[in-house]
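Example for tutorial group B:
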């Protein structure tokens, strides 16, 4: 059997894993190794953009790119990983099960939102923007509401969770629903602060944006029940709404549980500097599936495309390097930059793990727009994509933000 690297997932880390592996194999003129990507569809969902309007357009076709790059694609969903047998079981769209063997496996199957069963009615009545399908379902629901007579329940949107996704969605909704009269948006958070994982640095900016946009904030308010007509909080308060959107909490792909090794609280596999799972030397974890140390100061990669794109490049390179006995590249992503969209108000960019505010307002918004509409998309040609898959050439977050900010300031 020809040597084969199997990549599970076609998101940011999965595609960049495949391209990076292909880059090294091309450089070493190795044609004896096949790279195969397995995913439900041959497209990359622009998940960071699903809070925006028209989410059905947020899928980037990968057919031509993969074909031109010489990367094989199998449409299906990996249901079982057999590390000892070096194969995976794949369910095709028609329901058939097949087995695909590998020499090296890269797990890049991402993460998904957590819907706690303790919240009564969440499964039946809660919306989310975790996937293309769920974000499109929410969009259709919002459009359908316009045909109903005005009421408190129709005109109120409750966003459950004031983390990164919750804040971006809540601040974007006034623009998406600008023609709706009597619009009321309520942001509910169990913690006592907005953006608990975002730190104290950008919080005053976030709070100002929420205030200026007229968004109500309820902190220390756990959601206990969601019905077709309202949200009930632990305090007993009931908010009439036909639209409750759940954004609170994500976990890594359940496939991590099929691989031996330590996991963190988000079910991510602990990996070494090469992004290898220590207990299974032929399996690499990357993107949201990996609990990877970014530096020597104890910081770890976040579940974000910023980290996923470099994690993918490193995992792909190292899986191929291990197979053809070339030197590995240790994963390192020192420094950290964060860009949070705040809807019509603008955006905020922070620097460092303590998230000191670097810039806010219009320039920050232009940076966010460039990230969402250009930077996170793969190049259109295979030649550009493979060249751009070099792990050593990918800039760290703060450096990238500095470049974009200076460019925008100069052109202003």
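The residue assignment follows.
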């Amino acid at each position: 059997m020809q040597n084969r690297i199997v990549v599970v997932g076609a998101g940011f880390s999965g595609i960049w894993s495949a391209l990076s592996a292909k880059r090294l194999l091309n450089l070493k003129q190795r044609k004896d190794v096949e790279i195969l990507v397995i995913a439900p569809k041959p497209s990359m969902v622009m998940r960071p953009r699903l809070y925006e309007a028209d989410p059905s357009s947020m899928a980037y076709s990968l057919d031509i790119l993969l074909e031109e790059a010489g990367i094989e694609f199998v449409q299906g969903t990996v249901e079982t990983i057999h590390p000892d047998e070096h194969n995976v079981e794949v369910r095709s769209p028609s329901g058939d099960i097949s087995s695909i063997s590998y020499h090296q496996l890269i797990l890049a199957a991402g993460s998904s939102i957590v819907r706690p069963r303790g919240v009564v009615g969440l499964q039946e009545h809660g919306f989310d923007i975790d996937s293309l399908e769920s974000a499109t379902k929410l969009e259709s629901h919002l459009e359908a509401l316009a045909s109903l007579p005005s009421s408190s329940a129709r005109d109120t949107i409750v966003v459950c969770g004031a983390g990164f996704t919750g804040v971006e969605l809540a601040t974007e909704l006034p623009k998406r629903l600008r023609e709706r009269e009597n619009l009321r948006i309520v942001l509910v958070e169990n913690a006592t602060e907005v953006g608990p994982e975002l730190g104290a640095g950008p919080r005053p900016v976030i709070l100002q944006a929420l205030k200026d946009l007229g968004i109500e904030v309820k902190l220390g308010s756990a959601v206990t029940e969601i019905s077709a007509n309202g949200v009930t909080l632990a305090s007993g308060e009931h908010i009439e709404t036909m639209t409750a959107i759940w954004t609170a909490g994500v976990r890594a792909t359940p496939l991590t549980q099929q691989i031996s090794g330590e996991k963190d609280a988000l079910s991510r596999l602990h990996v070494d500097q090469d992004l290898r799972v220590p207990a299974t030397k032929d399996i690499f974890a990357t993107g949201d599936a990996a609990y990877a140390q970014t530096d020597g100061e104890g910081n770890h990669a976040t579940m974000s495309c910023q980290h996923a794109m470099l994690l993918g490049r490193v995992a792909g390179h190292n899986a191929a390097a291990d197979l053809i006995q070339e030197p590995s590249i240790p994963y390192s992503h020192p420094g950290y930059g964060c860009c949070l969209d705040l809807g019509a108000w603008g955006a905020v960019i922070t620097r460092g793990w303590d998230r000191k505010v670097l810039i806010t307002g219009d320039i920050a918004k232009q940076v966010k727009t460039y990230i969402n509409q250009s930077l996170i998309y793969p190049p259109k040609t295979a030649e550009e994509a493979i060249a751009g898959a070099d792990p050593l050439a990918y800039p760290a977050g703060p450096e990238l933000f500095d470049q974009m900010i200076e460019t925008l300031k100069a052109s202003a």
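The first helix runs from residue 12 to 27. Compare this with the pattern of hydrophobic and polar residues in the output above.
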